[in-house]
Amino acid sequence: MNRVYVNVICRQLAADGLIARSRGAEGKLVNVAVRGDLGTLVAPVAVGTARLRTGRRVPGWLAERVDALVGSFPDCVVAFEASGAFPGPSLYFHLRAVERRRLHETARSLLDDQLFLEYAYAVLPAWGMHRMGAQAAKVADFAQISAALRQEEPALQQLWPLRITMLSPQSADHVAATAWDIIAHVKVSTSRTQIVAGSKMLHHLLPDLIPPIDRQYTFSFFTGQKMVASDRAAFLDWYPQLAAIAVRCQQPIYDAIKRGGFMATGEAKVIDNAIMGFMQQRRKSISEPASFLGGQPQTFGTEL
Fold it and tell me: Are residues 166 and 45 in contact, defined by beta-carbon separation less than 8 angstroms?
């Protein structure tokens, strides 16, 4: 296994208090299992301490918006739940896909489950990813998507044990890069852009790690508009910020899942729910002027 992914997994195990990490005699990291009778030797990630990665350039208005979301996170989740948005097939197939996903312990087992793949595929048009007629927005062929996902089994297995509420900033960067490679290869949508359809499909494979992304809420939260210059650049920038929000809001996320809140089907989905609730409340209270972006639309540079 690639050493980068080994390091990501070891960081996660250390954050969960299952192993202790220290420098050995030769200066290399040594990972030692924590004995149950000695208690936890490594402190878990502290809620409220994780911030955006060092060197990440975040506009002042976005930093304030993230802080506002974190400060009102439980209320935003409740507001979303009260809205009762997305009933019918969009809820039904989502619930069936996540329920089926929870039956599996490995990526290989999941990808061999034809019923799960069919449920996850059915979510896409239910969530608005397929348009009849001449419109360009189409979901790719089921057999094509299934085959591409199976080719990504090693990468999916590397991400399998990780949870968005427990990622360090460095781990979040690695997860973002790996997840984007999967999205770019699978090509869930037949259109040029992949970030929305790809994240929604990947969310159902990794419901505690990858939030679904949509234009109306996620795009608007991070940019104030529904288009970006580069899907890849946007995903690599947004995911670590979503992970930082998740770490700061661990407890309300766990609370929503424990009480069985509406569409609180996993750690990553609760973050999405909170963003939707935040944006719904904001739109009810004010009509946002262009100045909330500092007078300039937020865009991303050319893909590297």
Answer: yes
Instruction: Write the Ramachandran bin of 269: left for phi over 0, alpha for psi from -120 to 50, otherwise beta.
Output: alpha
Handedness of CA 244, 251, 221, 60 (dihedral sign): negative
Beta strands (DSSP E) in the chain are 19-23, 29-33
How far is residue 278's CA from residue 288's CA, in Å, rounded to a whole number?
Answer: 13
- For residue 222, what is the DSSP state? H
Q: For residue 132, how far is the Cα from the chain centroid?
A: 28
- CA dihedral for 201, 202, 205, 210, sign (positive or negative): negative
Q: What does the alpha-carbon distance between residue 236 and residue 239 come to, in Å, rounded to a whole number?
A: 6
- Per residue in 113-170, pLDDT (tens digit) is 999 999 999 999 998 875 555 555 689 999 999 999 999 999 999 999 999 999 999 9
